Amino acid sequence: MPGDSLRAFIHALPKVELHVHLVGSAGVDAVLALARRHPSAGVPTDAVELREFFTFRDFPHFLKVYWAVQSMLTDRHDIESLVLGLTDSLRSQNVRYAEVTVTPYNHMVDGMPADELLAGLASGRAEAARRGVDLAWCFDIPGEKGLAAGRETLAFALTERPDGLVSFGLGGPEVSVPRAQFAPFFAAALEAGLHSVPHAGETSGPATVWSAVRDLSAERIGHGTSSADDPALLAHLAEHRIPLEVCPTSNLRTQQVATIAGHPVGRMLSAGVIVTLNTDDPPMFDATLEGEYLAVAEAFGLGAENLRQLARNAVDASFLPAAAKSYLLTEIIATPTPASPA
Ligand code: ADE
Ligand code: ZN
Fold this sequence. Notes:
Strands 1-2-3-4-5-6-7-8 form an eight-stranded parallel β-sheet. The chain is α/β, with parallel strands linked by helices. Helix 16 (304-317) packs antiparallel against helix 17. The chain is globular, with a radius of gyration of 19 Å. The protein has 17 helices and eight strands. The chain has a single domain (3-328), classed as Metal-dependent hydrolases (TIM Barrel), CATH 3.20.20. It binds adenine (ADE) and zinc ion. The site of adenine has 10 residues, from loops.
């Protein structure tokens, strides 16, 4: 106590993850196995060297490593095994539902046939449900690849519309990748009933978040870290109930913040913004969702009721149907509060 009981409480809370990338969820053993099959990808085949490989100088360096892992995925079996690896990790943490970001354009540029990607997602999702974890998909545009990627991602999403596809996103670098250029694709995705969830304010200033809100009609913001530098923006996000998908350990590992205690999540919470906690690319960042709850609790002095609220926020901010939301919320409310320290 109190660390152990808080840990147990965090585990017992039914949780939802809203920001996790499929490629970035490849477990260390899975990456090592892929690396042995694809020596030319330049990914280490030794566990110690892989941990070193996953030590990032900055965000551009992280993306290069991420792309190297992505380049090794070739068929439905690779995709299904990523989905099931993620599923087992989520299940072991009592995460019941996750919205998983997939970047179809990148897989196709790397040579994976569309049918292979779709088959791996479908079989993986069906097996995940059997294992007690519901998965939904976000198809996102790799922003650095420009308008062609926007066009193709939209066309793929709307033509294929696989079961479980709920949202449309935008990832990759932000500097020199204006959000507004993708406005027509987001408008069409929204029109077709998908939700808008672009990354913004992870690696650039609050103007990018404003643009995501105004130009892309963002319903949630991926990261939104730099929103905290603009009080008017924080007030806008709070007033319009636009949640942030905050990924503290990710921001630490890509050198966007120096410490978790220095992360602006404390200011976001104080401003009344709807904060959700997420892992982004868990094995690459040596992160778990339970670890994010614990790290934020320790850094900002949050107790069980604050953590319960964060778990509720994720359910509210999700794109689950109303009945599934209320089922999870009931369970979260019923999770016993740990006994206070003697
Ligand atoms: N793709 C994978 N992880 C990402 C991140 N943290 N930001 C933007 N694009 C990404
Ligand atoms: Zn992300």
